[in-house]
Design goal:
Number of helices: 6
Mean pLDDT: 86
Largest sheet: 6 strands, mixed
Order of helices and strands: EEHHEHEHEEHH
CATH architecture: 3-Layer(aba) Sandwich
Number of domains: 1
Shape: globular
Oligomer: single chain
Helix content: 25-40%
Structural class: alpha/beta
Length: about 180
């Protein structure tokens, strides 16, 4: 799976791996599964998508990628698969990283695995994974962590629509330069 979205994004969304029913079928991360439906509802509400229907949507100011690029066996990548794909993530983050005069950018990590991989690749200070944590990676460059919008997390209430939308509100404030960490 390759990243998909706009050419000059300000939001980079990082997931774990292509899902069998979603990206495994469509080639686009978070398209065609329950986690994508949850994600795209907020992306649309906050202006990052033209539609809540992920299959018809065009991303606006955003790109979606995963730390693992191929469909993992049993839908769970191994540590070696994560390490083998790390060079791709490193390259994507290098291309996304803003210059000192660029407008703010945010890397949104969906889930603990994505968060740990991005922290490792960027050399950010290691902090425990929590929802809606904001870390300044550099001037105008922020990392935000979120629980993954999986059906399990949503159905058990670990991640609610209110929590997710509050996080997107904080992301918009970071991108607008009206929020500080």
């Amino acid at each position: 799976m390759v990243p998909w979205g706009v050419a000059r994004p300000r939001l980079l969304i990082v997931g774990l791996a292509p899902g069998l029913q979603g990206a495994g079928r469509t080639g686009k991360g978070f398209v065609g599964d329950a986690s994508g439906a949850f994600l795209f509802s907020s992306l649309h509400e906050y202006g990052f998508s033209t539609s809540v229907d992920a299959e018809r949507a065009h991303l606006q100011g955003a790109v979606i990628t995963n730390i693992v690029k191929c469909l993992p066996p049993k839908n769970r990548p191994s540590g070696s698969e994560k390490r083998q794909c790390e060079a791709f993530l490193r390259q994507e983050l290098a291309q996304f990283s803003p210059s000192k005069k660029a407008k703010p950018r945010v890397v949104l990590c969906l889930g603990k695995d994505a968060y740990e991989s991005v922290v490792s690749v960027t050399g950010a200070a290691r902090k425990p994974f929590v929802h809606d944590q904001r870390i300044e990676l550099a001037k105008n460059y922020h990392l935000v962590s979120s629980f993954h919008p999986s059906r399990l997390n949503v159905n058990t209430g670990r991640l609610t629509r209110l929590m997710f939308n509050d996080m997107f509100s904080n992301i918009k404030a970071l991108l607008d330069g009206s929020s500080s960490l």
